[in-house]
Amino acid sequence: MKIPNTILAMLGGIGLTLFSLWFGQHNHLLPVPATADAALVDGLFNTMLTVSVGLFLLVQGLLIYAVIVFRQRPGDETDGPPIRGNIPLEVLWTSIPAAIVLAISIYSYEVYNAMGGLDPMAAGGTAIAHHHHHGGAAIAAPLDGMAPDMGNGRQVAYGVGADPDSMGKGPDVTIDVTGLQYAWLFNYANDGIMSGDLHVPVDQDVQLNIVAQDVLHAFWIPQFRLKQDAIPGQMTQLRFKPTVTGHYPIVCAELCGSYHGAMRAEVVVDSPEDYAAWKTSMVAAAGLDQSAIAAAIPTKQLSDADYLAPYGAELGIDPGAIAQLQP
Ligand SMILES: [Cu+2]
């Protein structure tokens, strides 16, 4: 008995769909989701991956099928049939991708809105509460890291703000973040703490006010599913609720100079007790010796060779080779 080709094609389509749906949910491509909103991003990513895997297998499967089934047989010197255009086919393969792109746009817009990305300053709780005036001149350009005033008294900023359901509520913790070549600095103004690593308490609403001191940087925590440019003269912000305690990397995701690759820090999501203990230890350390913290932060004053020496040891590079670097 021979199974009709239409039945085979249908079974193939069902199998391909089921595999794509399964793979979209079991791809393990993303690191642990460590904030309340991370699941939204993962949902979007997994949906796009499901569609992509399905299309990839369909297109590549048909290609391989055609290469095998319609290959040139020995002794066959004829030309292929002169096929030109196929309106129904073109309508089909234009309308399906158009519908997919439209659906993904609407979905991603909803995700961005649910994360608080559309109106980051609407949360109310913000460090930017006053206006600066220089010599009485009303200057529209950003001053001192301020967001520009759009004329109606509302500050406009970039970033991810509060979820729509926590709009109007201030954050539990506010931390000022400065990106500079080649480090991140975290300033807990209320506690008088300056740190090279970021500590945040689990299950609390955290707001980061981000600026850059010199050039563009980008503040990226993969486990938080958040990335935001740090811009000189223009404050940006990120607001999130960490949900999983642990240590995660902070990566600069904008090529910002020679040692951009070394511009990494760590975010530690602490239990409430650990967070309190860390703050106490930092306050004590700051009281003892401010310069110890400053010394721990890499600066541009180091020569290239000095700066690279610890990394060279780590990578097994001959110290002599590093010493020959031109300043
Ligand atoms: Cu950087």
Strand order of the largest sheet: 1-9-6-2-3-4
User: What order do the helices and strands follow?
Assistant: HHHEEEEEEEEEEEHHHH
Structural class: alpha/beta
Mean pLDDT: 82
**Extended strand count:** 11
List keywords for this structure.
7 helices; alpha/beta; single chain; 5-stranded mixed β-sheet; 11 strands; binds copper (II) ion; 6-stranded mixed β-sheet; 327 residues
In brief:
By secondary structure, this protein is an alpha/beta fold.
Provide the fold topology.
Layout lengths: L4 H21 L12 H32 L17 H29 L42 E3 L12 E8 L2 E6 L4 E3 L2 E4 L4 E7 L4 E5 L4 E5 L5 E5 L5 E7 L11 E7 L1 H17 L1 H7 L7 H12 L3 H5 L4
Parallel strand pairs: 1-9, 2-6, 5-11
Antiparallel strand pairs: 2-3, 3-4, 6-9, 7-8, 7-10, 10-11
Helix pairs in contact: 1-2, 2-3
The structure holds copper (II) ion (CU).
Protein model, in words:
α2 runs antiparallel to α3. A hairpin with a 2-residue loop joins β2 (173-180) and β3 (183-188). The chain folds into 3 domains: 5-69 and 89-115; 158-296, Immunoglobulin-like, CATH 2.60.40.420; 300-327, no CATH class. It is elongated. It is built from 7 helices and 11 strands. With 327 residues, it is an alpha/beta fold. It has a 6-stranded mixed β-sheet with strand order 1-9-6-2-3-4. A 5-stranded mixed β-sheet has the order 5-11-10-7-8. Residues 179, 217, 252, 254, 256, 260, 263 line the site of copper (II) ion.
